[in-house]
């Protein structure tokens, strides 16, 4: 990833930094957010580089099976590998209160709205229901400016069913899409959950930002295991190197042949999700 993309990711993360002192859990959360945004920035960069100059839309007949990666290369993680199945949904004619009960029962902030054939026609969220509840509590708008500014939201909030309250058209992803592309879509659209549809627009699952985050960013224990495996491939005595990983930063200590160090450190830096490598080794 370029320095510009790193700076953009860190700037976006700082925007969400609270004005009060961080709790013990906040710093790791902010670090994970920076790493997530960096992965999204990388996906966006790759996406723009691969798009044709004509800017054509995504094919409606996107294949459900992705091509196999070349031998020796890791398989690309795809939406179907991390999505929730079955996905909660509501039909367009479901009354307002029943939609609210569904969100509470499923403990989600939004659900897809489907027709009789399971095609996703929209998404109804807590925000849509809050607008409805506000109109029910105070049905009169105040002032011409307020009426113009909130015209669409106000009119929609008079609906009594999922279909009249929902936001449309829906933003969806395909099961065969790479997780990185789905993360880009979620970030770009500022959505917490994305319906997953087949090439005919039928609901097959749902994927959340949390699941995308977990898929894109491995925890420190997994990174350490891969680093130790790599060390074992380079050294006859892997125990000569002590590996520590914190928030994606790898620290390597021990006594090594000076000639082996540059290649080993370069290999560790190439591992996915490694943020930086600190060399504390000593020449043997």
From TrEMBL:
PROSITE patterns: CBS (PS51371). Residues 1-15 have a biased composition (Basic and acidic residues). It holds the Pfam family CBS. Residues 83-145, 166-222 form the CBS domain. Keywords: CBS domain. Residues 1-29, 44-74 are annotated as: Disordered. Signal peptide: none annotated. Gene3D superfamilies: CBS-domain (3.10.580.10). This is CBS domain-containing protein. It comes from Streptomyces qaidamensis.
